[in-house]
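Ligand-bound model needed. magnesium ion.
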Amino acid sequence: MVKIEAFIFDLDGVLVDTAKYHYLAWRKLANELGFDFSKEENEQLKGIERMQSLEILLKIGGMDFSKEKKQQLAAQKNKYYLIFISKMTTNEVLPGVRKFLDEAKSEGFKMALGSASKNAGAILRKTDLERYFDAIIDGNKIKNAKPDPEIFLKGAGAVNVQPSKCLVFEDAAAGIQAAINAGMRSAGIGDPTTLCAANVVVPGFVGLTVYDLLRLFY
Ligand code: BG6
Ligand code: MG
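Prediction:
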């Protein structure tokens, strides 16, 4: 088995508790458009870039708009989202994450961020997580959204590690598929049913050591 040399982390729902804010912002927009949007339906949006997420949301609501109006709606959702994240503190780093990142860093693993979010930089700064990463690939740096492998391949390239030696951490089915498409191994963070395509699934980082996790791969 090829040794893992780099970790590539998704951000929303893996390192920070922002998945709930994406949901609340989309739900507010849906409600304003006159329909409800459930947590179950929100699963389809996880890991999906902003404009594609809006398309899915509008389909759920049975609505369609012009390109210009859609741009405006996506900007509106982002405005709501930015209000939520403006109040974020370091407390919203998910439990166990900082300890895991500290251990991975001190053990010499290369660390990259692979997030579809165009707000990733601001969130990393607010939560004091930026310093852990050798490379940050976010929604501003890619053309093709997950499940396309571009984001993770760019992360691997930036830390100079072959894809087969990278392990991706993801909470979204689209992200696990992107890891598979990139020829990387994956650890699902969250629900084993949604993340069944991942090599391993753990509920979160609490009590998880780097070597306990890697043992599941070798
Ligand atoms: C992903 C989230 O990380 O980023 C999605 O899982 C979100 O829910 C996507 O739509 C894009 O984020 P942003 O911040 O650029 O709208
Ligand atoms: Mg995510």
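The chain has two domains: 6-17+90-214, 19-85.
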